[in-house]
Design a protein that fits this description.
two-stranded antiparallel ribbon; two-stranded antiparallel sheet; single chain; disordered N terminus; alpha+beta; 2 helices
């Protein structure tokens, strides 16, 4: 009897978690107060650090930004830094429409690699 109750509660909590996660993708669930005079709303900015050994650490970034207009694009921060010691193993951007339906997925091979340090040479006349 207790087992069935525990399973039912677990399934209910799992269902609530799934539905609440999907709500983060829909712009319709953003309260009006947050959208007033806003260009973008950051819905999730989660950083998870897992130290596996003295030589290995994994950082997982999950970010959900709802862009409300063109000015909101600057809040996307769709860039990840790396160097000889930090590697990017997986990067992906998923774009959703207003109701939270996936419309586009951009994988690592489609990203453009830019130098973090730009050198500008000026010619003086």
């Amino acid at each position: 009897m207790k087992y069935k109750t525990c399973v039912s509660v677990f399934l209910l909590l799992t269902t609530l978690t799934v539905f609440s996660q999907e709500d983060l993708y829909s712009a319709l669930t953003i309260p009006k107060e947050l959208k007033e005079n806003a260009n973008a709303v950051i819905r999730l900015n989660d950083v998870h650090v897992s130290i596996e050994s003295q030589q290995k650490m994994t950082i997982t970034l999950n970010r959900i930004v709802t862009v409300l207009n063109e000015k909101g694009n600057r809040y996307l921060h769709a860039a990840v830094g790396y160097d000889n010691y930090r590697k990017v193993k997986k990067i992906e951007v998923v774009i959703f429409n207003e109701v939270g339906k996936e419309i586009k997925r951009v994988k690592k091979k489609k990203f453009i690699d830019h130098s973090a340090v730009e050198i500008h040479l000026h010619r003086f006349y």
